[in-house]
Design a protein that fits this description.
The complex is a heterodimer. Chain A is an all-alpha fold. In chain A, 58% of the residues lie in helices and 0% in strands. The relative contact order of chain B is 0.12. The chains are: A mainly alpha, B alpha+beta.
Chain lengths: 110, 284
């Protein structure tokens, strides 16, 4: 998929996971709602500063929003300190949701 | 119990007061603990030990999410590793005893319902906990932001404030629908939040669709709460839309904020009360 479309798709996914509507994001960022809609449709590019602002608002990593990394985290990923035993407690569809959401979140180096 | 007291002390939360655990995690801890409400059904909660730390809450009724959040906060406070807490049925037996889980359950109970807060909640209403009726227990559970059965269990098992007979009577009968019916008759909604003038929290959380029973004569600003109906127990509103409503008695005797989140909200804790404008749902 084209980079711009990956970014658009991740922005939309992150917004929905943050519990926000396009209108609420527009209000928070001082933009017009159609602008958010255009960005999420991949019709408008996002500047680096805007991407940082979106990442901060959605509590996700900038690099993930920028299209880096996998869509879904591998349960054996080193960054994941959860025991695989714990994750196996979840139903398959829920495990999928957890691993997908985990791929996006922000982790600061200690 | 000591850790729970330490947390209250550290953040200057009176032992007599209720605490909003979502606000505590998101606004008081440093680094801030990110709270995510999710639609995941086979999980009670999840704690991610990282920087910044995160707590995820499964798809549960609000009062259960409150307790689960306090439980996951316990993992954070005790320095446990990341963990997933799976779905368990209320009163489930036969699970292996896990010391860490017991520890953080105890922490959660004492953080949300310290002995002084429970006694104070009954005393300020001039009720005695040892002979309180189910409706009184229900009102107090609402004031502490916890479930009715959670308060009853904690009062018996952890605090020893009620005897076994009183506990069994609370748990076995008449049940929440009957309690609501006794309080409000045919007007009783399927979900109810009872708020009175003895409330210690200034901002009270609820969800769209919940009936909100407020003191007699209360006025609600805006459209977050629907039109009120007078009942012998107070003025009954329905949480109609996400947002924050200022509610007050016109004589100036009482005021509070009712913060309404979407029913089965999933999203970040800090946005749970964001109002929506007309047409906002189109981009879902």
């Amino acid at each position: 998929m084209e980079q711009k479309l990956i970014i658009a798709s991740r922005l939309k996914e992150a917004r929905k996971r943050a519990g926000l509507t396009q209108g609420q994001v527009a209000t928070q960022m001082g933009l017009h709602r159609p602008t958010i809609s255009e960005i999420e449709a991949g019709h408008r590019s996002v500047a680096g500063e805007e991407l940082k602002a979106f990442a901060s608002m959605y509590e996700v990593s900038v690099s993930w929003l920028a299209g880096e990394g996998a869509e879904k985290l591998d349960p054996h990923d080193d960054r994941l300190q959860l025991a695989f035993r714990d994750l196996k407690k979840l139903k398959p569809e829920d495990l999928d949701k957890v691993l997908t959401a985990l791929a996006a979140i922000r982790r600061e180096e200690k | 119990m000591i850790k729970a007291d330490e947390v209250r002390d550290k953040f200057d939360i009176s032992p007599e007061s209720a605490v909003n655990v979502f606000d505590l995690c998101g606004e008081r801890f440093e680094p801030r603990i990110i709270i995510r409400f999710t639609d995941i059904k086979s999980m009670e909660g999840l704690y991610l030990r990282q920087t910044p730390p995160e707590i995820w809450l499964g798809d549960r009724p609000l009062v259960r999410r409150v307790f689960n959040c306090a439980h996951e906060l316990g993992h954070h406070v005790f320095g446990h590793g990341s963990t997933v807490d799976e779905l368990t049925a209320e009163g489930e037996s036969g699970r292996s005893f896990e010391p860490n889980e017991f520890l953080v359950d105890t922490f959660a109970g004492f953080l949300l319902m310290p002995r002084i807060a429970v006694l104070n909640a009954f005393a300020r209403r001039a009720w005695k906990i040892e002979d309180a009726n189910p409706q009184q227990f229900f009102v107090v559970s609402c004031s502490l932001g916890v479930g009715f059965e959670t308060l009853a269990s904690h009062s018996f098992f952890s605090l020893g404030l009620i005897g076994e007979a009183a506990y069994r009577q609370l748990i076995n009968k008449p049940g929440l629908p009957a309690i609501r019916k006794v309080m409000l008759g045919d007007l009783a909604p399927a979900r109810l939040l009872a708020v009175d003038t003895h409330q210690t929290l200034q901002s009270i959380d609820t969800e769209v669709g919940t009936g909100v029973l407020l003191p007699m004569g209360t006025v609600a600003e805006g459209k977050v709460l629907g039109d009120g109906v007078d009942t012998p127990r107070g003025r009954l509103f329905t949480a109609a839309a996400p947002g924050t409503a200022r509610v007050f008695c016109p004589d100036g005797s009482w005021a509070a904020f009712i913060r309404v989140m979407q029913d089965k909200y999933h999203g970040l804790s800090q946005y749970r009360h964001f109002p929506r404008e007309e047409g906002d749902e189109d981009d879902e």
